[in-house]
Amino acid sequence: MRIAILGNSGSGKSTLAKRLADRFGVPLLYLDTVNFESGWVERDAEEKARDAARFMENEDWVIEGNYLKLLLDERLDRADAIIILDYGRWVCLSGALRRWLRYRGTVRESMSNGCVERLDFGFLRWVTFGQFSNGRADMLRAITDRYPGKAHLFRTRRELEGFLESFL
Length: 168
Fold this sequence. Notes:
The chain is α/β, with parallel strands linked by helices. The protein is 51% helix and 15% strand. It contains eight helices and seven strands, in the order E-H-E-H-E-E-H-E-H-E-H-H-H-E-H. It has helices spanning 13-24, 31-35, 45-55, 72-78, 89-103, 121-133, 136-146, 157-167; strands at residues 2-7, 28-30, 36-37, 41-42, 61-64, 81-85, 151-154. The strands form two sheets. It has a five-stranded parallel β-sheet, with helices on both faces.
């Protein structure tokens, strides 16, 4: 089973990815761990692509994260299921705030070593407005048209849980 998880920042992608990887007993890759080095320094594009490609050589996997320039087509083509969390801005803002409260001052499992959880105005602006205003949400929705039958878009947590009852 190969599962790609995409969605808005603060939507719960990492939590869902962990849940599915544990359920199916498959390796999990959080793309934030590929994208960043310690101190939130972005890694070289070729290194990131090489690491992600190497991970996708596994027979089964869960890959969480958007990173549209990081082998997106390859991830989606190889995935057996694509889960897209397209929750509204207030749900995502609430999720980002809860995550910060839970992990502030620490490094969460879904992040590279040395990337201490932070919350700043730029990220809050992105979660609340940026990710909804630049066509990105439309692009995520278009994936369901491109991959009928394996791409599933959810606008609420209730929709997702209903799907997971039959999927798991």
